[in-house]
Design a protein that fits this description.
By secondary structure, the chain is an alpha/beta fold. The protein contains 17 helices and 13 strands. Helix content is 46%, strand content 15%. The two termini are 38 Å apart. 53% of the residues are buried. It catalyses: thymidine + phosphate = 2-deoxy-alpha-D-ribose 1-phosphate + thymine; uridine + phosphate = alpha-D-ribose 1-phosphate + uracil; 2'-deoxyuridine + phosphate = 2-deoxy-alpha-D-ribose 1-phosphate + uracil.
């Protein structure tokens, strides 16, 4: 078998066999195929696409390129969640404790953020001494003790995906549904949970800007998960404006804690209820989605979900006083009010531009080496469809460098579009794919 023949076959529009895909992934990962030939094959895939069988084979090959994370010693039906990424997305910090409080094991391996704000791990590190690196034994033991563990990926998980993604990133071959779906699902399936829910974001603040593309990606990933033997559901959700009100690491942790205490933003809470009720169905904890929703509402009202977050922090070495008193979380030196220059209704808030403004403040990473400022960010006071009076506060800028205040304030005035009331009510959830 020769890589030349595989490139030519895909260039000419034919499907690659399982053996050819395995040969490519194994030999590229091991360094036997040079970047220039791998790039040629990726470009051929980009233009001629992959069918469902090829996509599943690619995903399996990437999983088999490294270690898998054995969770068979965890009791019960283990559930996992993945988001394709957005702005102000602290769902994991809320959903995990809610699910665990319902008696279902919630297992999550997360990454660092590269972009608008930090990832789930970065946010959790706003809590003093929170340990994100766990051994397999610690992960299993903690989950059996309290039904939840959230940690960094350990070991040699999907090395083929890491290498291929780096190459796709510099050869303009990222935007291909099979390659995107295979990349995401290989990492999810290497963690041996029993069921997965996918939160596929679409809109200005998401990777997928177009609703049809987002639905196609969701279908592709659900097909992969179910074909691999994992119960998989996808929910396509709105990311045209930030989710919740907080954008920034410690600010999002504070908002997550408030949500677990029953005082969070409605859109963030509603999405957690939707995702959570689906996970409870997948875990066979309930027979109807409505029963799952009621169970989740009850663990919020009773305080059990909030207590579960405290247990998570305690089991992973964190200082629980940071959860009990959010004033202890990292705080910015300055808070600047951004006041409306007009009156009307908020027509739109560009999530991507808000994210870029938070990045400019230091809430995110421009490169892997960039250092995060966990305290800074933006808190929205007004969201889409809200009424705004002249001089009313639209948002609060949390910053440690006052030299950046004027620029971020200017951007926020451009980002907030205020005018007549929208004819159609905003939609949080576009589609469910099972």
């Amino acid at each position: 078998m020769r890589i030349y023949d595989i490139i030519k076959k895909k260039r000419d529009g034919y499907s690659l066999s399982t053996e050819e895909i395995n040969y490519f992934v194994e030999n590229y990962t091991n360094g036997n195929i040079p970047d220039y030939q791998a790039s040629a094959l990726l470009m051929a895939i980009y233009f001629n696409k992959m069918d469902k069988r090829e996509t599943l084979d690619l995903t399996k090959a990437m999983i088999n390129s490294g270690d898998t994370f054995d969770l068979s010693n965890i009791n019960g039906i283990k559930v996992d969640k993945h988001s394709t990424g957005g702005v102000g997305d602290s769902v994991t910090l809320i959903l995990g404790p809610m699910i665990a409080a319902c008696g279902v094991p919630f297992v999550k391996m997360s990454g660092r953020g590269l972009g608008h704000t930090g990832g789930t791990l970065d946010k959790l590190e706003s809590i003093k001494n929170f340990k994100v690196e766990l051994s397999n034994d610690e992960f299993v033991r903690n989950t059996n003790d309290i039904n939840i563990s959230i940690c960094s990926q350990t070991g040699n998980i999907t090395p083929a995906d890491k290498k291929l993604y780096a190459l796709r990133d510099v050869t303009a071959t990222v935007e291909n549904l099979s390659l995107i779906a295979g990349s995401i699902m290989s990492k999810k399936l290497a963690i041996e949970s029993d069921a997965i829910i996918l939160d596929v974001k679409v809109g200005s603040g998401a990777f997928m800007k177009n609703i049809d593309d987002a639905i196609s990606l969701a279908n592709e990933m659900v097909d992969i998960g179910n074909s691999y033997g994992r119960k998989t559901i996808a929910i396509v959700t709105n990311m045209d404006e930030p989710l919740g009100k907080a954008i920034g690491n410690a600010l999002e942790v504070k908002e997550a804690i408030e949500t677990l205490q029953g005082n969070g933003p409605n859109d963030l809470y509603e999405l957690c209820l939707k995702l959570g009720s689906k996970l409870l169905l997948l875990a066979k904890k309930v027979d109807k989605e409505e029963d799952g929703r009621n169970m989740l509402i009850n663990v919020i009202k009773s305080g059990k979900a909030y207590e579960k977050l405290i247990e998570l922090v305690q089991h992973q070495g964190g200082d629980i006083s940071y959860v009990k008193d959010t004033d202890l979380l990292p705080k910015a030196k300055y808070i600047v009010e951004v006041k409306s220059k007009v009156e009307g209704y908020v027509k739109s808030i560009d999530a991507e531009e808000i994210g870029k403004a938070a990045l400019y403040l230091g809430a995110g990473r421009e490169t892997i080496e960039s250092k995060l400022d966990l305290a800074v960010g933006i808190v929205l006071n007004k969201k889409v469809d809200d009424k705004v009076e002249l001089g009313e506060v639209l948002a609060y800028i949390h910053l440690n460098n006052m030299e950046k205040a004027e620029e971020v304030e200017r951007r926020l005035h451009e980002i907030y579009l205020i005018g007549d009331k929208n004819n159609a009510k905003k939609q949080l959830i576009y589609k469910e794919i099972e």
